[in-house]
Structure formats: structure tokens, C-alpha cells
Write a structure and sequence with these properties.
The complex is a heterodimer of chains A (268) and B (402). With 268 residues, chain A is mostly helical. Chain A is built from 14 helices and no strands. By secondary structure, chain B is of the alpha/beta class. Classes of the chains: A mainly alpha (268), B alpha/beta (402).
Chain lengths: 268, 402
């Protein structure tokens, strides 16, 4: 698969239509339609604000904690949305796969693009609250796309793996739900990493590519009080481990998907 | 410049049919080592060359591998071995309206379906009005597709499909849907394709369409090309194949019936000598015989056989009342065989016999045995009618002075 061939004209046309269909169907029949893409993170923030600022009082040592929290949750939601939507995407598009010849990866890829667009909309809300909370914006913000890229590559690898495996193992959707549920707590999203007092656990938690990406994103955009791999580890190797994990997952995903995609039409 | 459009070189395709499909992780784990499956060879070492500009018809009975062949050469299935060379752009129409989404409007579906055929937004914009006009759906384009009738959906899908700018078309049973007007549109489109010199592969059961459009045809049976050549020969081979098949199934059906009835014990079609027969030639006499034992409780019995086609339409019936029965036997309550001899005027096809016992006193139907026996007729010269009545022709000159 060479890059120019991968995104040739036909594939771009197809991708565009699949993504736009996805969006049209998502808010199908709801009165507010696309506005929900913005309303969802907005209400999420309000809930987080009330719970954490008035009741739980966690993370008061971190400035702008509600925004810090919102960014983490939005990035995590991006990861869950992308993987769980992709998981069923091949099976869900069985009608296309059995009837016409289209590159199968386009289907998974279009789910990932939908998730990316949604993330973009959510980030608008984050920016709004950053301004309201008077978060000091530094040039480090420009590094945010790197965090998103890390999550995206990791999620895309998993998406390819899951969507191809789901064709044969239909239990996977339930298993993946549970894994995500566990992952939510295994990743420092709603609690500040500083709350984890055991040093080694803290370090293990940061081996997770999603945790690494989220912490860097918070560090670069909201507060330098966020603990990142760079602040925790002196050696570059530990920073690289999650990145290598990401790349390995991606390569395995691509290879597995390619080997299986030949038989999608007959196995679905 | 090569002169072929499609070349298959020893292509094989088989499916793994698991004995117990491993659809859950648990069963997959449990059966990991002994995953049993059956290998179903759809076709083995199939070679075929299709020159450019040919209109190839593929005939074959259900399960002969036609659809698998189409999907394999369209790239939907991956062959186990062998090579497929496609020269040009190939567009399969395994079904019309692939990817149509019922929740989207007609307009959105045009763009979506168009994208699957490789049309960008701007290109569709240009031909959008023509598509809608051809489908005669101007008033409905902003309605959701789910509110369309199936005929409307097919029309829309077809209007988009014929825009496909492609070198090779693969059409699977497209003719099977739609009314007469739609079929005419299909035929016009086929003619147009032929004039343009496109390469077309058409799979259909409609032998008249094959004869009309195809330049040549192949007949598939159990994954093998058993005939390749002109359409006349192909339709003959195909018809014979069908006859063999129906003879087999008719024969087995004729024997396998169980008789739940206490009155009717057996119904069969036979030849003149009373030997069981399920396959009849044109004009051959068909003898229908039933063994019945009418209980004394039915004073005025009537016995009737209906001959229905598979669509459920009654083509003919024979009936006998008590008075007629008494002409043949004194005791109509004993076990007897009642048989009719019918002229062989039935057209090609399958006929299902229904037996009915009624009481003329009350007019009540006592017993109905649906489709208790079946037979086939084949070989008529013009099989597009329902019956072929016995006929006598007279030609006389009129208006001439002696």
C-alpha cells in the first residue's frame, strides 16, 4: 500500500460520503441535530464542575482542575468512541462488503475520521472554558496535536485489530466494553496522577500511551502541574516505551486487518 | 493493447463451512485445537477468457456457483488459487442500490450510491437532474428512502447505476425485480451497452434475455463450465439440466409423500400402463390415479383433483360424483382406484396435484390433501402460454372464383 494509491480520488470520494453519512445518521431525527456535538461536552463540563468543585474537592492543588478534567475526559472519549465505533464497523457495513469491491480499510478509516471531527468540535468547548477560566495559553499548545496523534495511531491500530477480529468473534464487543471501563480507571483521567502515592504504580500508569498523551496534553495546554513522562522519568527510554507500544499495536493492527480482509465478504 | 477484458486462469474457490460456527470466543477457545470444518469447493481450476465487447450470459441452476463466480471475478471474494486478470474498470451490480440507507433522503442516497460508483459530489451535481428525471421521482427526492415503495427504490438505484462509467459490467439477476416498464428500461440499457461495445456479464434465469442480448453464453453446473458457445446451444443445455433436476426431484417427491388421510391412500401420475411417471413430454397422455376408501358416513361423495402451478393458480381440475362412480362399481365404499386420463396439453412446468373429497349432500369439503403429488412437463416449442389445446388447422381459400 503506497500512500498516493491509498488516498486516490475514488477513495477520497468514498471516504467523504461515508463520513458525511455517518454524521447525518448520528443526529437523525433529533431536533437540535448537530448542536448536540457541542452540547454534550458543555453539559459534561457543568457536571464535572459541580461534582469536583463543590462535592468531591479532589485536585484542588491543580489549577483549573475542571478544565484539566474536561480535556482528559474528552481525549479519553475520543479513544473509546473511535475504537468502539470501529469495532462494529466492518460487520455493520456487511451489505457493502458483500456486494461491491471497496477497500475495506476505508470503512474503519471513515469511523476514525468521524471520531476526529467530533474531537475537534469537543475541543472548541475546551477552548471556550479555557478562556472563561483564564488559563494562560503558551506556545506549548502547538504540541497538543502530537498527543492527539499518539492517541489516534494507537486507537487506529486497535480499531483495525478489533474490527477484523469482530467478524469472527462476536463476543468482542462485550469484552471491549469491559476493557474500556477498566481502562477508564487505570488511566489518570478523573484523578490527578499525584493522588497515586506509590511511586512505581505512578510510573506503570504512565506506560499507557493514552495516559502519556493525556498528561502531555494537559501539561502543554492547561497547567504545568500535570505530571508527565518527562517530569517523572529521567531516562528517555521510558518516554519512548509508550510510543513504541503505540507503533507496535498499529503495525499488528494493519497486518492482521490485511490478512483477514480478504475473507470478510464470506465470513460476515 | 490486449483484446481480452477478463481472463480467468485456473481459478479455484472454496468455502470453509465450520461444523459448528465459532461465533463466540468461548467456543473458539474450547474448540481451538479441533476446529472442524468442511471444505466446500465451489469451483476448481476454472479457466475462462472473455474478449472485449462480449456480452456473456451465464446460466446455471441454483447453487451451480454463478454468484460465487461473479463475486470472485469482481474482487469481492478472494480466490484460493489461480489468477484473475481484469483489463479495464470493472463494476459489479450484484444488487441494485447497494449502500442505500433508509434513513437518508433520496437526494443523500444518490450522492452516497454515486460515491460507491466513483462519482464525486460535483459530478453528481451535473447529472443529478437527469438521474431524478429518469427515475421519475422529482417530487420525492427530499423524502426519506424508507418512505419509498420498493419499485421507487429500484428505479432510483437503476437510474444511478446506468450512469456508471465503466468498461466491464457484471450484472446479477438485475432483471428479477421491477415491473414490465422497468424491464423494458433494462432492455433498452442493455441494447445501449451493446452498441457502445461494453463488455458485459449477465447472470439470469431469463433465457429470452440471454438469447436477445448475449453474444455467447456459458452454462455452469456444480462449478464446472459444461457448455460454452452460442446462446441457442446454451439455453438448450440449460433447459435439459433443469429437466434432469426436476425429474429427480419430482420422482422423489412423488414417492416421499405420506398420506395423513384415512380416505385417500395414494395419488400418483402414471403412464398408460399404470406405471408411476412424473415427467411428461408434450402431448403425452397424463394419467392421474388415486386410491381411495370412502367411509360409509359420506353418502354422496365427490372426488376431485386440482392441478395447480407452483404459483397456486389452478390450471385444471377433474371431478367425479357418486352417480358416475356407480357406473363403474357397485360398492363405492370399498377401496378403489379412481383414474383419469388427461390430454397432454399442459405447458412446460411443474404441476402440483391437490386431492379433495367432498359430500354432495351437504356440500361440505371432507378432506383436502394439498400438493399430494407433482409432475413435470417439458419440451414444448413455445413455452410462453398456459395450455396447448389440441388443435386442428383448416386452411381454405375464400373470395376466389372457381
Amino acid at each position: 500500500m503506497k500512500i498516493p494509491k491509498v488516498l486516490n480520488r475514488e477513495n477520497r470520494i468514498l471516504l467523504r460520503e461515508l463520513v458525511s453519512t455517518d454524521f447525518k445518521l448520528r443526529y437523525q431525527g433529533s431536533a437540535l441535530g448537530y448542536a448536540w456535538s457541542l452540547l454534550k461536552p458543555l453539559f459534561l463540563f457543568i457536571i464535572l464542575y459541580i461534582v469536583f468543585v463543590y462535592f468531591l474537592k479532589i485536585g484542588q492543588d491543580i489549577e483549573h482542575f475542571p478544565v484539566y478534567l474536561l480535556l482528559g475526559i474528552i481525549l479519553w472519549n475520543f479513544f473509546t468512541e473511535m475504537t468502539s465505533q470501529s469495532l462494529g464497523s466492518i460487520v455493520g457495513r456487511g451489505d457493502l462488503i458483500r456486494k461491491i469491491k471497496i477497500p475495506r480499510w476505508i470503512i474503519v478509516f471513515s469511523s476514525s475520521v468521524s471520531a476526529l471531527i467530533n474531537l475537534g468540535l469537543n475541543l472548541i468547548i475546551v477552548v471556550v472554558f479555557m478562556i472563561i477560566n483564564q488559563v494562560e495559553i503558551t506556545p506549548a499548545v502547538l504540541l497538543l496535536p502530537l498527543s492527539i496523534l499518539e492517541i489516534y495511531i494507537f486507537a487506529l491500530g486497535l480499531s483495525l485489530l478489533l474490527s477484523a477480529a469482530y467478524v469472527k468473534f462476536r463476543d468482542l464487543s462485550y469484552i471491549w466494553e469491559i476493557v474500556l471501563q477498566a481502562g477508564f480507571y487505570a488511566t489518570p483521567i478523573i484523578y490527578p496522577l499525584s493522588m497515586v502515592t506509590i511511586d512505581i504504580v505512578q510510573k506503570i500508569l504512565l506506560m499507557n500511551p493514552i495516559a502519556q498523551a493525556i498528561q502531555y496534553a494537559r501539561y502543554n495546554t492547561i497547567t504545568t502541574e500535570a505530571i508527565t513522562s518527562s517530569t517523572l522519568f529521567s531516562s528517555v527510554i521510558y518516554i519512548l516505551i509508550p510510543i513504541v507500544v503505540t507503533l507496535i499495536v498499529f503495525v499488528i493492527g494493519v497486518l492482521y486487518f490485511r490478512s483477514q480482509s480478504r475473507y470478510f465478504a464470506e465470513n460476515i | 493493447m490486449s483484446d481480452y477484458a477478463i481472463k480467468l486462469d485456473k481459478v479455484s474457490k472454496s468455502f470453509k463451512l465450520p461444523h459448528e460456527k465459532n461465533m463466540t470466543l468461548k467456543s473458539a477457545l474450547v474448540n481451538f485445537s479441533k476446529r472442524g470444518y468442511e471444505l466446500q469447493h465451489v469451483f476448481t481450476d476454472l479457466s475462462l477468457t472473455l474478449p472485449k465487447g462480449e456480452f456473456l450470459g451465464i446460466l446455471g441452476r441454483n447453487g451451480s456457483g454463478k454468484s460465487t463466480l461473479l463475486k470472485t471475478l469482481s474482487g469481492i471474494y478472494t480466490p484460493d488459487s489461480g489468477e484473475i486478470h481484469i483489463n479495464g474498470k470493472l463494476t459489479p451490480f450484484i444488487e441494485l442500490g447497494v449502500g442505500f440507507n433508509p434513513e437518508l433522503s433520496g437526494r443523500d442516497n444518490v450522492y452516497l450510491n454515486g460515491a460507491l460508483l466513483g462519482f464525486g459530489r460535483k459530478e453528481i451535481d451535473k447529472i443529478y437532474n437527469e438521474i431524478v428525471a429518469f427515475a421519475e421521482l422529482e417530487r420525492f427526492m427530499d423524502q426519506k428512502l424508507k418512505n419509498y415503495s420498493s419499485g421507487m427504490q429500484v428505479r432510483l438505484a437503476f437510474s444511478i447505476a446506468i450512469r456508471a462509467n465503466t468498461d466491464i459490467l457484471v450484472l446479477d439477476e438485475v432483471l428479477a425485480v421491477g415491473d414490465e416498464a422497468f424491464q423494458r428500461k433494462c432492455y433498452d440499457y442493455f441494447n445501449e451497452l451493446k452498441l457502445k461495445g461494453k463488455t458485459v456479464i449477465l447472470v439470469t434465469h431469463d433465457m429470452s434475455a440471454v438469447k436477445r442480448f448475449c453474444t455467447h453464453a456459458i452454462v455452469l453446473d456444480k462449478g464446472k463450465v459444461i457448455y460454452e458457445g452460442d446462446t441457442e446451444g446454451a439455453t438448450t443445455v440449460y433447459r435439459n439440466l433443469n429437466l434432469e433436476g426436476s425429474e429427480r426431484s419430482a420422482a422423489s417427491n412423488n414417492e416421499r409423500r405420506s398420506y395423513d388421510s384415512t380416505i385417500v391412500q395414494e395419488v400418483k401420475t402414471t403412464d398408460d400402463n399404470g406405471k408411476k411417471k412424473a415427467m411428461f413430454q408434450p402431448k403425452e397422455k397424463i394419467r392421474i390415479a388415486g386410491i381411495v376408501e370412502i367411509p360409509t358416513s359420506i353418502e354422496n361423495p365427490a372426488i376431485q383433483f386440482w392441478f395447480n402451478n407452483p404459483g397456486g393458480t389452478s390450471i385444471a381440475s377433474v371431478k367425479v360424483h357418486k352417480n358416475d362412480l356407480l357406473k363403474h362399481t357397485k360398492d363405492i365404499h370399498k377401496t378403489m382406484e379412481v383414474a383419469w386420463e388427461l390430454d397432454g396439453i399442459f405447458n412446460d412446468g411443474k404441476y402440483l396435484v391437490t386431492a379433495e373429497i367432498s359430500d354432495d349432500t351437504t356440500g361440505e369439503v371432507i378432506e383436502v390433501l394439498k400438493e399430494v403429488c407433482e409432475f413435470d412437463v417439458a419440451g414444448w416449442e413455445s413455452p410462453y402460454v398456459i395450455v396447448h389445446p389440441a388443435k386442428k388447422i383448416a386452411v381454405t381459400l375464400v373470395g376466389q372464383k372457381k
